[in-house]
Specification:
- The protein has seven helices and ten strands.
- The chain is of the alpha+beta class.
- The strands form three sheets. Strands 1-6-7-5 form a four-stranded antiparallel sheet.
- α1 runs parallel beside α7.
- The protein is elongated, with a radius of gyration of 20 Å.
- The mean pLDDT is about 95.
- Its EC number is 3.2.2.-, 4.2.99.18.
Length: about 260
Amino acid sequence: MPEGPEIRRAADKLAAVMIEQPLTEVWFAFPQLKHYQVALVGERITAIEPRGKALLTDFSNGLTMYSHNQLYGVWKVVRAGETPETKRDLRVRLETAEWAILLYSASDITIVPRGEIEQHPFLKRIGPDVLNMALTVEQVEQRLLSPAFCKRQLGGMLLDQSFLAGLGNYLRAEILWQAELAPKHKPQDLTPDALHKLAQALLDIPRISYHTRGQVDENRHHGTLFSFKVFHRSGEPCPRCGAMIEKTALASRPFYWCPVCQR
């Protein structure tokens, strides 16, 4: 599943071609959304906001579309009138005079008035967006020590979107490696220095992944541009201590780590 950095980069790409441009064509695959097609033609997209692994698309008539890429969803940007060849199922097409943005394979799509979108079950349960640049290390430390999370093992907690939205499997592995922590630890048992280092990594690693730019293969690791230290590197030497990186299963997901320097 794409993680927070990939969703935010997708939002940036969509916004660059769509913001404030009148919609000339609107198409939805799902019957319950069809009646919005006519209502949205002529309207403009005013904002595209990531929320963890979801996107909120605001329209000038006060409606907002919630979409979640889930495991296989992907947004594409094409020239107006173009439809790329793909085996994916098209779910949404929003087109202007010059560009079109297409959502494939996702099935979790809702449109409601902007004032009601915060009541969506996913948005009500997620924590702060890890890529919200206003989120501070001190706030993350407080969240780690809060009653809801202080007694939970890090290996499972870092996949829970109610902790910090946008974290996922590759970020979990890289954050714990950066913090030099094994996944068995609980926040309440960490020293102040270890807690601070973990909180810093929880912000630094997703932000580095988001801000990194360059050539990318979108079919490998969700197109991430982040340089992996342990993820998908089992059997290779740890860049920090030289021990062999290991792969195991953790919270029903593959996990990569260095058993020597992650204590």
